[in-house]
Design a protein that fits this description.
DNA-binding, alpha+beta, 47% helix, Jelly Rolls, 178 residues, homodimer
Amino acid sequence: MSPEAEEYVNSIAKEKKVSKGDILIRQGQRVENTFYVTSGCIRSFCVDKNGKEHTLQFAIKNWWISDFIAYYDTDIATLTVECIKDSNIIQFNAKDLDEIYLKFSEFEIFQRKILERHVVSLNKRILNQLQLTAKERYNLFTKQYPDIELYTPNYHIASYLGITQQSLSRIRAEKSKT
Amino acid sequence: MSPEAEEYVNSIAKEKKVSKGDILIRQGQRVENTFYVTSGCIRSFCVDKNGKEHTLQFAIKNWWISDFIAYYDTDIATLTVECIKDSNIIQFNAKDLDEIYLKFSEFEIFQRKILERHVVSLNKRILNQLQLTAKERYNLFTKQYPDIELYTPNYHIASYLGITQQSLSRIRAEKSKT
DNA sequence: CTAATTTATTACCATAGGGTATTTTTTTAT
DNA sequence: ATAAAAAAATACCCTATGGTAATAAATTAG
């Protein structure tokens, strides 16, 4: 990136410290920001008609998170984005980012690469969900997020894997046996 | 888009008619193309260790399809992309597209919007998989692809929904009862 | 340090969906 | 039109995962 572009990015970037439990985006509200995680962990989830939570994403270091469904459609949030471990994030306003794209076309490339990476990751997630058992998905998960279990409750992970917390507990018990 | 950009796009776009059964991308081969569907239907799927197929995407009119996992990482295909109904597609070579981005930055915006739409769609797919029952997913599917059942075998749809063909058959039977 | 609260484990039974096999229906080929 | 092949439906039983509930462990608050 050119120095000017970088300067501009810095001018709209809002570095923030957020604490466990902080809500960055609340379901039902307008989504104006996207967040880049430099440390810690942020989670996005939805709540279904029965009040059950389903985790869409865990964002750790170097990942972006928001309610992308609402963000890209400039719509009301269906997701909640919550800090689950004290984190350092960089907040970007959607409108500010839009201007960057106009002023510095080099930034488009940047963003395109991020989006491409995101598509790849989502594609893999879907394929895993289709072809792996809960146990296999859990094993993969622990590799992808090596220390997430240290600070994330069981049921958050279960809700990401698409199983109940009891099932996850059983899988873990079975695993520790051998 | 400017006339020049449009002309350039046309110069690299390869319009093609493809027939049911044609393979556009073969698992294990290098992925150099992405396809835009103007009519018909193209399917992407993977084959797991047990030889079972899992459908990642059905691309109908106005959708893009490829093995995006391999395409964006310039890697070997893990997916197969297959024509399941006589279709008209426009084929784009990855390298040609890369040049477009360099020559016409306006095209980046275009591509960014496509990617954003893709991310939204994949996010929704994951959330549906997490919170809906097989029956609910099937009902949603028939709305999203109203006439796909006319030309797609049962087991392709089942493999997209993440259930067996027998389960899908049962769901359909139950539905036609009421 | 203790009590209160949250989280995880375990047990029990229920059920959605899977696997194998058979039959029926539909499609394709001759 | 008939045979062959493919696809769909159905049946039967099985298994992974879900739901409820009770217990145990860990964390947090006072």
